[in-house]
């Protein structure tokens, strides 16, 4: 997709990652290239900007000449010449003159003007049918980087520079990116890769930031000067939207706000079916700030606190005391509501600053989570001590991730006992009855859940990963993301196995994952007998409304039939047909022709048959 | 205005380093220097331009010079194109 020319709207589709609407300027985060912004200059600043550009060029020129002399001395003429060529580029009228003209005529900052001129060269070089010449692009990139770096005068290319509200556009967002963003300024998120359960999507939902992921060529299509409208419900992005689109989305945005307000009225009502069956509704969080949002949505607790964010957001390992401070703060905030702290669920690659980890071909099935913790018992005990110390400040529970066998679980419990013994020896208080649970997300654990149930106080089924492992699908791979379906009969059978095993031994089983955000799955899981759900804060009100609008006897009957279906498509159709009217009415109509045209009747809800008809016959 | 056609002799064609030499040569003259290949015209004093010429061995290039030292510029450029590459 080529970049749009100013004035014409371009529409792109991606995957709906987080609902809501965002509109505004963009902030392009492309860590491979130097960051810069787009600025319009007041008249008085134009000539100084031209001057600044010339100075930056001069600085790059002298750097290159120095380099050339150095390389000449060490490696001889041939190698040195390339720097000479680069230095020449800096003086090339074909680059300099249009840039200066652009700064003067359009009154834009040097970075943007220069970058635009270089894009033109990139394109022209791309058109040349000669591999070697096309390879010269790397020289252009080199100059581009050097000049932009001199203009920007920065070492850190991170998000610290988000100086105004904007929609962030990136290839992907890592957890550290997100933690470092000034989230108050992030209006929305667009990424090129990812699916609904990738980190960017999960965190966007947790922070209630609208997001669209999997927009394949977002970075080449969207320029720093563009404005966008992002529709998180439909997974659409409008670049430089026209007037009609802007107006339509203003209306849409206020409708959405109104419906969120309705849902928050549910906050203080219990999650109870019409015939009195009670489930617990908790939330998954990564960042302590999300806890407050969780409470405002009526969460009864935190069913999953992903501790890895503590490890990802600093450049050294968090100490036991630093961890304790985070855990204790959360526990106290949530008390008396439960806080389930999951021990480190990361791969060695993310901790390379302390752990000597070889790159893995398949980190998802590799050395991570509990395996890593058990291989570094010192680190593991430190985390466990921090959690145990926090246990006297609230209602804390410990959970081990990625358990795949009984011996692994027993080994983890042994380390936990060591941590307890250490604290006892130091006279530090902790709750000796702090419950211990296991995340069931590896198929082997589901299949031996009966063994595991004897050794823990609770199970939490991690459906995001369970689905991936069971169906052999990488959720971050947009080519196969469509295969990810929690309603696959294989997944349902495993869930049932875990429920039966847990209940057979009298322990509660909750469901932890985005599966519960889908009302169809919600009905099914309710009927299958889960004791609680832990999901993103935004999904909570819908789920509660679903629970309150059904009877458990109906849900059970629906579940029994659903479990007898052969394919995920059949399961979904059956569930859709069984959803209560009130829930159906509030579901966004996912059948989308690409351009929501008729604003006249968009206020009408689809009828049941329309919604059912919109479900593909055989969902992948 | 002077013109002459010449042939690229280097087996790699005009790439970054020889391009630099060409541009260096061209920049030494006051005259305007244009290199033409098929229907693509580039400024001989612009390294980006010369690279875009993408002339491989055997390519025919028309050199055009205009200005006070156009005669010397023409000779200089033709020689450079024929001999700058090793």
Describe this structure in words.
In chain A, 48% of the residues lie in helices and 13% in strands. In chain A, strand 15 (509-512), helix 21 (519-528) and strand 16 (532-535) form a beta-alpha-beta unit. Chain B has 3 helices and 4 strands; from the N terminus they run E-H-E-E-H-E-H. Chain B is globular. The A-B interface holds A 78, 81-82, 84-85, 88-89, 92-95, 121, 124-125, 128-130, 132-133, 136, 139-140 and B 12-13, 15-17, 19-20, 23-24, 43, 45-49, 51-52, 54, 56.
Keywords summarizing the entry:
heterodimer; A: 620 residues; alpha/beta; eight-stranded mixed β-sheet; eight-stranded parallel beta barrel; 26 helices; globular; disordered C terminus; B: 86 residues; alpha+beta; four-stranded antiparallel β-sheet; 38% helix; 27% strand
User: Which bin fits the share of residues in helices of chain A?
Assistant: 40-55%
End-to-end separation of chain B:
30 Å
Helical fraction of chain B equals 25-40%
State the end-to-end distance of chain A. Answer: 27 Å
Radius of gyration of chain B: 11 Å
- Quaternary structure type: heterodimer
Element layout with pairings:
The complex is a heterodimer of chains A (620) and B (86).
Chain A lengths: L9 E4 L1 E4 L2 E9 L16 H30 L1 H15 L1 H14 L3 H17 L4 H5 L1 H16 L13 E5 L4 H6 L5 E6 L7 H8 L4 E3 L4 H4 L5 E5 L4 E4 L3 H22 L15 E6 L3 H8 L5 E5 L1 H5 L7 H15 L3 E5 L26 H7 L1 H14 L4 E6 L5 H21 L9 E5 L2 H5 L1 H5 L4 E5 H9 L17 H16 L4 E4 L6 H10 L3 E4 L4 H9 L3 H12 L4 H11 L2 H6 L21 H7 L6
Parallel strand pairs in A: 3-4, 4-5, 5-6, 9-10, 9-16, 10-11, 11-12, 12-13, 13-14, 14-15, 15-16
Antiparallel strand pairs in A: 1-8, 2-6, 3-7, 7-8
Chain B lengths: L1 E6 L8 H12 L4 E6 L2 E4 L3 H7 L6 E7 L3 H14 L3
